[in-house]
Amino acid sequence: MSCRRGLPTQPIVLDQTSLPLTFRTIFLKLLWFDLQEADMDTAEWLRQSEAFLGAWNRHDVEEVVAWYTEPFVYRDPNIGAAAIESRDALRRYLSKLFDLWEMTWSVREVFVFDGADGAAVTWDATFRLRARHTRLEIHGVDIVFLRDGKVVHDEVFFDRSLLAPLVAGNAA
């Protein structure tokens, strides 16, 4: 099987019985949701995800903060096990983050959760430490839940170790 950009060029067939129990449960949930309803939900989630990432791409702290309702939970690999739970704390974090990094994101796929106002949003991103010229592409996923159209829970997952070549020699 050949690969392009790390993705198989031939379909991968998963046998649900070979997956661990928790993954098997998720796998079955993704397979058996109502397709008619999911198409509409997925289209709306895709539109919202692109608008949300647009705010992040503009590095507009206030626009990003406006997407979150209070209280909320925000986690990403840069903040460790802690969580950001207020707009003021998110504002401080984003101000520092956007000062150090030039970042752009694009939505790859959206997987809407059945029975909850949430989705797994996979993305591609380009990162560049502002003090350097080198850019790096990273793939990741956000697990996002909404309440009344605003983000109430956002957990970001990507391999932070991939940023090491960009920060080597810098105190970032």
List keywords for this structure.
Nuclear Transport Factor 2, Chain: A; 33% strand; 5-stranded mixed β-sheet; alpha+beta; 172 residues
Overview of this structure, please?
This is SnoaL-like domain protein. It comes from Mycobacterium kansasii. With 172 residues, this protein is an alpha+beta fold. It has one domain: Nuclear Transport Factor 2, Chain: A, CATH 3.10.450.50. The protein has a five-stranded mixed sheet with strand order 3-7-6-5-4. Strands 1-2 form a two-stranded antiparallel sheet. Strand 4 and strand 5 form a beta hairpin. It is globular. The chain starts with a strand and ends in a 5-residue tail after the last helix.
- The CATH topology is given as Nuclear Transport Factor 2, Chain: A
Class by SSE composition: alpha+beta
Question: What portion of residues is helical?
Answer: 25-40%
State the major sheet. 5 strands, mixed
How many beta-strand runs? 7
Whole-number average pLDDT?
A: 80
Protein name: SnoaL-like domain protein
Domain SnoaL-like: 50-153
Pfam families: SnoaL_2 (PF12680)
Itemize the secondary structure elements and their pairings.
Layout (H helix, E strand, L loop, with lengths): L2 E2 L2 E2 L12 H11 L3 H23 L3 H6 L1 E8 L11 H14 E12 L5 E12 L6 E12 L2 E8 L6 H4 L5
Parallel strand pairs: 3-7
Antiparallel strand pairs: 1-2, 4-5, 5-6, 6-7
Organism: Mycobacterium kansasii
Protein name: SnoaL-like domain protein
Pfam family, one: SnoaL_2
